[in-house]
């Protein structure tokens, strides 16, 4: 597998150097692996910190900026960051109003953010935590006890980020984040495996002519493998399991997310089928976001995430955001 | 090659249905294949129309909206749209101030936009045309006489779009577009071929362990094939040929563009090397854009585009834009 890299060992550091060079509005500590908005800490504002293994970009580093995260901690590819990164991030963004840790539900991330929370509180930073566990595909898997955290992370970071931007106290920012997670569900499919730089080839085998239904963002196994399906059939399957689990009774935000290597031409065709399938189930879509946002390196495939919203959450979604990966109104 | 599609024959129509469903701010004529901003024609504003073969998304349909294009005409995959689409688009966006056609330099596109210009003028629409031909890799190739049009198309559409948004007359909008093209140069590399839905497999053979230097956005041959190079070596090669040709004596806009399947983690690492290589050649980068903007379906690889700017062009770059594929300040 050919990659646009120097050597596997420096992939994360090289990307961080690139982020620093391209985005002067960020402070990137390449050695300690912390990405912080340059104007942090923002006076009077609750700080938002997230992080996780690299390989899912723009999540999380691409979501640092006004209206979203204050800092992100990237680990090695598909590997949790360490507590030291999170403690540094918390210290860098705390204005005295406290810090929310947004943690995807993977065993390593959960343990390390827990430890970091204790260490940061010892240093006088008030910490709240929210766990993202939106993936309805499986409970308990290779990396996780319980449901995995995937696409809903974007919704949690955006909506809690907007609440913090409005000057909400830590309690409200945490409650928005928790609510968004509870109101969100995801499901993903893989048409191909992804290749990590360290391995230099596919992380799992997916035979020609088959797809993986319910795949995780590290290529973890899903619900089942089937003979290749059409975009329409995949949309029906994914919408069915997500709607069945969420049972939304008000409009939803819809993320149609590319896993990395699926062309936008295909992704929009898939989005058409997802809209159709939702319409047939009388689910109203308030806003749609289409693109590569929560990726798995060069995996081909897609996921959908629904987040049921009320007027408050919809207003937070529409609020300005200015990050490398998501930007409007600013 | 597995694809997230229904059948190859409906790929473009399916994507247009998706664009319509996800972006209510656009009017998408799926049958006639014209994408128009919903509020067109905008009173007193020059209209901008572009188009080309599908498979390069978000170019061009993802760049329709305030501050950029008024309409786009998608052809079949890697196939020029037909004059009828362009004539419809021109009629839909002309407010009486005239329309600029932005045409990538491929034989089919040039012929069809020429014919459309005549037909539209017969219908009373004043038409100006600008040809984009920024790719320094080769002159004359599979699809083109002269240089190919690639990444600079984004700069032309953004900067001319901003000029039109300010209320500039057709003459000035055309002159901005022409100037941006003259001040822009691109160079791309492929690590893998792309697969078209019709063919169902790679459009050309690229042996394991080799890359194509100077590849076109349809996988056309470039300057040479070499044994796989590092990100640093590729950046040095690409920056050398682009800077040698452009010889910029003021700051530049830099686009580090993914061909489709290259992970953002790799793209930012490559961006770091491009910044380094430009710095060593004393080229100052005013703004950088990193992402999949002018793609070749699922090709792995990247291209760089430089556009030399003065204060006027930099202001136009920073002006608000609100499209599916590029958005800020609005």
Strand order of the largest sheet of chain A: 1-2-4-3-5-6
Number of helices of chain A: 8
Poorly predicted regions of chain A are: none
* Mean pLDDT across every amino acid position of chain A: 97
Q: In this structure, how is the largest beta sheet of chain A organized?
A: 6 strands, mixed
Structural class of chain A: alpha/beta
CATH class of the largest domain in chain A: Alpha Beta
CATH superfamily of the largest domain in chain A: Dihydroxyacetone kinase, domain 1
Bin the strand percentage of chain A. Answer: 25-35%
What radius of gyration of chain A results from the CA coordinates? 19 Å
Judging from the principal axes of the Cα atoms, what is the shape of chain A?
globular
Percent range of helical residues of chain A? 25-40%
Q: Could you spell the SSE succession of chain A in H and E letters?
A: HEEEEHEHEEEHHEEEHEHEEHEE
Count of DSSP strands of chain A:
16
């Amino acid at each position: 597998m050919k990659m646009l890299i120097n050597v596997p060992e420096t992939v994360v550091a090289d990307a961080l150097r690139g982020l620093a060079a391209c985005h002067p509005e960020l402070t990137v500590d390449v050695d300690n692996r912390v990405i912080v908005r340059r104007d942090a800490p923002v006076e009077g504002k609750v700080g938002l910190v997230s992080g996780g293994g690299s390989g899912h970009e723009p999540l999380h580093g691409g979501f640092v900026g006004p209206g979203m995260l204050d800092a992100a901690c990237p680990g090695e590819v598909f590997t949790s960051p360490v507590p030291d990164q999170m403690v540094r991030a918390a210290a860098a963004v705390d204005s005295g109003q406290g810090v929310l840790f947004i943690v995807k539900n993977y065993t390593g991330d959960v343990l390390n953010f827990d430890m970091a929370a204790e260490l940061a509180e010892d240093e006088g930073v008030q910490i709240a935590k929210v766990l993202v566990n939106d993936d309805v595909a499986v409970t308990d898997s290779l990396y996780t006890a319980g449901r995995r955290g995937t696409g809903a992370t974007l919704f949690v970071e955006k909506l809690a980020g907007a609440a913090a931007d409005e000057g909400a106290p830590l309690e409200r920012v945490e409650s928005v984040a928790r609510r968004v997670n509870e109101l969100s569900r995801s499901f993903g499919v893989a048409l191909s495996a992804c290749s990590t730089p360290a391995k230099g080839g596919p992380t799992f085998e997916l035979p020609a002519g088959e797809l993986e239904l319910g795949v995780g963002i590290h290529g973890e196994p899903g619900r089942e493998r089937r003979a290749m399906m059409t975009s329409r059939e995949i949309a029906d399957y994914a919408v069915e399991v997500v709607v069945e689990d969420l049972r939304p009774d008000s409009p939803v935000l819809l993320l149609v997310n590319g896993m990395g290597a699926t062309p936008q031409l295909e992704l929009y065709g898939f989005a058409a089928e997802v809209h159709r399938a939702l319409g047939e189930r009388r689910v109203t879509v308030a806003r749609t976001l289409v693109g590569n946002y929560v990726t798995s390196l060069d995996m081909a495939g897609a996921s959908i995430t629904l987040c049921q919203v009320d007027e408050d959450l919809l207003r937070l979604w529409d609020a300005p955001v200015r990050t490398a990966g998501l930007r409007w109104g600013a």
